[in-house]
Structures
1.
Amino acid sequence: MTDPSLDLGRQILEEARSGEISPEMKTALAQGLMPLEEEILVEILFLLSTDSDEKIANAARTSLYELPDNLLAGMARSSEATPSLLHTLARIKVDSREVMRDLVLNRLAEDRTIEMVARHCELPQVLALIVGNQERLLRHTSLFETLLGNPALPGFQRNKLDTYREELRMRGQLDSVKPEPTAPETAGPMTVASEGPSEELYEFDLDLIGEFEEDEERPIADEEMLPFEIYAGMEQSQEERQQSIFQLIQLMNPAEKLRMATLGNTEARAILVRDGNRAVARAVMGNPKLKENEVERFCKMRNVRDEILRIIGMNRNWTKNYSIVHGLVENPKTPVGISIRLVSRLHAAHLKQLMRSKGIPAALKAAVKRRLTKAKG
């Protein structure tokens, strides 16, 4: 039987490819609020990382950066990876040996991407793989000076590269190559060279990065490798991100809420289980990522539908958890039939507390009294 959440994930991917997806859903996907099947999630995040909305693109890059290296390494070595995907990977994971090792060996990676890695990577093993690719070195000769200018290149690799360069020059296969001038890398506002005699200071702008990527004849500049925290716009605090989830959901239509309930993360589920739309609230309970500790919290909520509490009470696996049983019986929103059936599972101390409670139905209180009497006898 096909997993419905997988089918829904594929449908969202198709919509993302065609651009038929709302800004609210894009934001939810970019922020990782919908933990889809890994391959689908990665492809969607890469699509959104180039979105015209800078906030969405930044959020998608942040989510990509936080994915496990072994997953991104699979993308880096894929024979179906696009050059732009590999270039994005190189920019955000240049410090990952696992990802960079597979990426520099991928023949689909463009020369400009490998040069960016050669300039900024500090991993000797990765730099050695670039040195060993003589075909690419001969085709893209500026790699010689880029590699030799990287202080992380080991001495024996440096000697090997220098020797190979001189041999090519002696054979007339290599013209003299001069190192490209580069600006110092900075974590703050950056200085961009202008055509005039003066320099103008700009705030970091993704459009500037796009100019470097689109113009293949232009040398790759250090601005492409700004620290990822600046590139991805990670200045938003955790509290602000949590508040934005609620605001985002409020802007969604019923169909989008249903998708979010089916595939969303913990924070989204906690909000949508209380949604006024019955189908949305029910969808949360069918979310494959739903955890038992979340169910514990749901059964204690006074603002959920009684139908949700009935679903919990009828689930044998969940009612093996004493905290869930106690929460259901104590919750006045729980259907009386469910509560009475679970009374026999409660400890005496909790039964006594229920007898003193004024919020429970009379029928339930009577059942509790019978249970206490029976226990005494």
2.
Amino acid sequence: MLSKLLPIFLALLLIAPISLGDDSFDAQIRGKENELDLLRQELAEKRAAQKKLTGKEKSVLSEINDLEGRVDLTEKLLAKLKKKREACQKEVTSLQADLHSAEKRAAARQDLLARRIRHMYMHGRLAELEVFLSAESLPDLASRAHHYRQLTDHDRQLICQAQADQLAIAENKSSLEKQLQETRRLEEEKEREERNLKTEKVRRHKLLQDVRSKKAVYEQAIREMEESARQIQAIIDHLERQRREAASMELVPPEFRQKAGLFQRSKGSLPWPLQGKVIAKFGKRTHPKYKTVTFNKGIDIQAPYGAEIRAVAAGRAIYIGWLRGYGKFLILDHQLGYYTLYAHTSEILIEEGDIVDTGTVIARVGETGSLEGSKLHFEIRHQKDHLDPRDWLE
């Protein structure tokens, strides 16, 4: 008899759906997926553009610049993939915990159901009649009927709860499998992009070797860097006009305006943007091999990749961009026509319009646009004049 009743009760557990899921995890993962899609699209466009230009003559710095742009996007994509994978892994952990709890609840309730079935089998329907027939009075009969209804209600609730547990387990297992598949897919995409990144870096290294070993290529790179320097000056000229207009219209934020003149008074005592070896001083430079004479408009400080770059004085980020020969760079406005420039960064940590204090970490050292590995190119300018940073730094 028990063997016949048990399948019936267990079959009842597979009826009616129940909903599970963590909306916060879903929203978090959807947000990261949107960011990933934007990066994937931008990277795909750059790679498609690169394929169209394959075989066509390009300037060496343009090619290095394009390579660095793809490297930068690939690194950002890898960082986003890592974050999304971490979010997926968190949900996997949460789902595994929910699944374990649901299985424990289901096991306990199935055990209780089995005991109830066994009890009914052993005592049969006659036992129920005996409960009512043995009542000694009408109040006693009513009381027994009430308790019997409570018992049957409890049995019915137990079946519903066990049913919900089974459906929760089924849905949880399905969600868990989907997240595990997504985690594996992200890992595969990450490995693929890491191979792409390695390939791009090898190509960049070869191009840099050509620049360093071939005079004609080196001289072409220098000419392009000089053109980029003129573009920087045009940017600063434009910013200077904007600064004057803003000052005349009193559009400068009060907290920034209060610091006017501070940079000028700090000549000779400004902190260094980072610690490192100065590998190129301000002024004329003669290449040791090619004897080519160039003018360095700032100083170059050799430092490990990713080292922190700090603002040498309070200022406002007024320009963030990317140029051949400068790579990823930013310009801080220190008022009264004074500007500082930080180039070859791997990452810029502030946004245009941000007001920073002396010593604020604003970027990290990189090698974008650099022909000499990871370093910081640092400039100080006053309107159209290039100033020797060594006269200003402590």
